[in-house]
Design goal:
With 90 residues, the protein is mainly α. It contains 5 helices and no strands.
Length: 90
């Protein structure tokens, strides 16, 4: 889909912008630890765990083996078990 005001981006610029958006989303999630994954699933249809799984899948598509726990730590900003212990509601 093209729009009238579509910028002229090379593929690397587009990747960098998409990566910046993901980093901002993760920062936002980090600042809103009060928002539970179940709330995200109900409202948005995805959660932090989904992002972790999507990271693993994207790596696999590129032929890179990525462990789910590593991906969760990237998304949660800490080990998943630690996040659950400190931030997950009962």
């Amino acid at each position: 889909m093209t729009t009238k005001n579509e910028p002229q981006l090379d593929p690397q610029q587009e990747i960098e912008l998409e990566a910046a958006v993901l980093r901002r989303l993760l920062k936002h999630f980090d600042e809103r630890k009060d928002v539970q994954n179940i709330e995200l699933m109900i409202l948005a249809g995805f959660c932090r765990n989904c992002l972790s799984k999507w990271l693993v899948e994207a790596a696999a598509e590129k032929g890179v083996a990525v462990d789910l726990e590593w991906a969760r730590e990237k998304i949660y900003g800490m080990p998943y078990s630690e996040w659950k212990a400190h931030h997950q509601a009962p």
